[in-house]
Specification:
Layout lengths: L2 E4 L24 E7 L10 E4 L2 E4 L5 E6 L4 E6 L5 E8 L5 E4 L11 E9 L8 E10 L2 E9 L6 E9 L3 E13 L6 E15 L3 E5 L8 E10 L7 E8 L7 E8 L3 E8 L4 E10 L3 E10 L8 E2 L6 E3 L5 E2 L4 E4 L7 E7 L8 E6 L3 E3 L15 E9 L13 H5 L4 E5 L3 E5 L1
Parallel strand pairs: 1-8, 2-8, 7-27, 9-15, 16-22, 24-31
Antiparallel strand pairs: 2-5, 3-4, 3-6, 6-7, 9-12, 10-13, 11-12, 13-14, 16-19, 17-18, 17-20, 20-21, 21-30, 23-25, 25-28, 26-27, 26-29, 29-30, 29-31
Length: about 425
């Protein structure tokens, strides 16, 4: 059984579809038995699912079954009370488990915990200095960590931590301070270090005042060649560090280069590994991203080949488009393609469609049977994205992005966003 993970995908339905019932027993070997789950793997109850000519509703297990379908088929999911549709075009697996990204089932995990650690620095960074906080260890299972600056106090940063288990836990943090290269904006030399073990409690705020000391470690480098197509501009890199025993890698530094070699000065810490996320391009022209996992200090990493951007050929900027309109793009490169059709206003509640397909063409779907439609006269954006992990629609985003960047190489190429007006 394959698990398909997506941001949301969509299929073309141009006529009303008859209602069908879900069943937990597969009688016909060509019947489709689908399970719809959220970001956490929990079943999404009451989702509307279109499979072939059948309209289904998922049961308490997130499951539904359609009658026999010959060969490849299309499947569309509209999560419960959501204005998005996820479409797979040409699925082959007749027992898919489809994980919808950005969707969380109503019942939360009673063991889910969160807390903020407010870190105060003795002096602000400025243009020539940088400071970073790394969660080194936690005596339970960490689910996520994020760092944010205080816009009103440059001496403060907040680390937000999510975990599962006991309401209180011990956490070990490290703080690094370095001089910054004025050209690449990457670290030049580590000049300060501190660490602390703090007790954190879910729902509470913990404070840590950093006191810079001489670093107790030496320095090394992480480096690798990065190739991109001619004319695609500078390469920007986010370097993550994973300390020995840490659950995942966290942001250590960023840098930009116009050359073919990416190099970072890093702390020489036993057991530490690094992941580089390399990007080029921008929203207006298209862009690509590649991950370089399991880099080691002092060891040259594998060459990164940033893929060429796909190019939308239809629609073009300012076109009027709607249900039945063609979407076309260049088909160079490998992998399935994700087509995104969304409101230009990020916070809009209007319908948004995502289509996973092969080849270089799709059609804006008619989804009246699922209670969805594009509003008329509204500004929308269309883009396409190709993912190296997904040579087929069945395999599209099979492994969650963030969890896998540290496990194996991965690249994504995205077209520029094209603005249209719906009809």
């Amino acid at each position: 059984m394959h698990t398909l993970t997506l941001a949301g995908l969509v299929l073309t339905l141009s006529r009303a579809l008859p209602l069908a019932a879900c069943s937990s027993v597969i009688v016909d070997p060509d019947a489709v038995s689908a399970t719809i789950v959220d970001d956490n793997g929990a079943p999404i109850v009451g989702s509307r699912v279109a499979i072939g000519d059948a309209i289904l509703t998922t049961d308490a297990e997130g499951h539904c079954e359609a009658p026999a379908v010959a060969g490849a088929y299309n499947l569309t999911v509209r999560p419960t009370d959501d204005e998005s549709a996820s479409i797979f075009v040409g699925l082959l697996d007749h027992e898919p488990t489809i994980q919808l990204r950005g969707t969380v089932a109503p019942a939360p995990d009673p063991q889910a915990r969160s807390a903020d650690i407010v870190v105060t620095f003795p002096e602000k960074d400025g243009d020539s200095m940088g400071s970073t906080i790394i969660l080194d260890a936690l005596d339970t299972t960490a689910n996520g960590v994020a760092e944010s600056a205080n816009p009103t106090n440059p001496l403060e940063k907040t680390t937000s931590l999510q975990w599962t288990g006991s309401a209180s836990s011990k956490a070990h943090f490290q703080a690094f301070r370095c001089t910054i290269d004025p050209v690449t904006k990457a670290p030049k030399h580590y000049v300060g270090y501190d660490s602390a073990e703090v007790m954190i409690t879910s729902g509470a705020q913990t404070a840590w005042a950093v006191s810079w000391k001489a670093p107790p470690f030496g320095e090394s480098t992480v480096s690798f060649p990065a190739h991109r197509s001619a004319g695609e501009g500078d390469v920007s890199t986010l370097l993550r560090m994973q300390s020995a025993g840490a659950h995942f890698a966290q942001r250590l530094a960023t840098g930009t280069t116009s050359g073919a070699e990416v190099t970072f000065v890093v702390p020489a810490l036993a057991g530490a590994s690094f992941t580089a996320l390399v990007t080029t391009g921008n929203v207006d022209e298209g862009g690509s991203l590649a991950s370089v996992p399991q880099l080691l200090a002092g060891v040259e990493g594998a060459t990164v080949e940033l893929p060429s951007f796909p190019v939308l050929t239809s629609p073009t900027a300012g076109d009027t488009s709607g249900a039945g309109s063609d979407i076309r793009w260049s088909t160079d490169g490998t992998g399935a393609t994700l087509v995104s059709i969304r409101p230009a206003d990020f916070f809009s509640h209007d319908a948004r469609y995502f289509i996973a397909t092969r080849g270089g063409a799709a059609v804006v779907p008619v989804l009246a049977a699922l209670g969805l439609h594009l509003p008329g006269g509204v500004k929308y954006k269309v883009s396409v994205e190709r993912d190296s992990w997904s040579p087929t629609v069945d395999g599209f985003a099979e492994t969650p992005w963030e969890a896998s960047f540290e496990k194996k190489p991965h690249d994504v190429a995205r077209s520029a966003e094209v603005g249209i007006v719906t009809r």
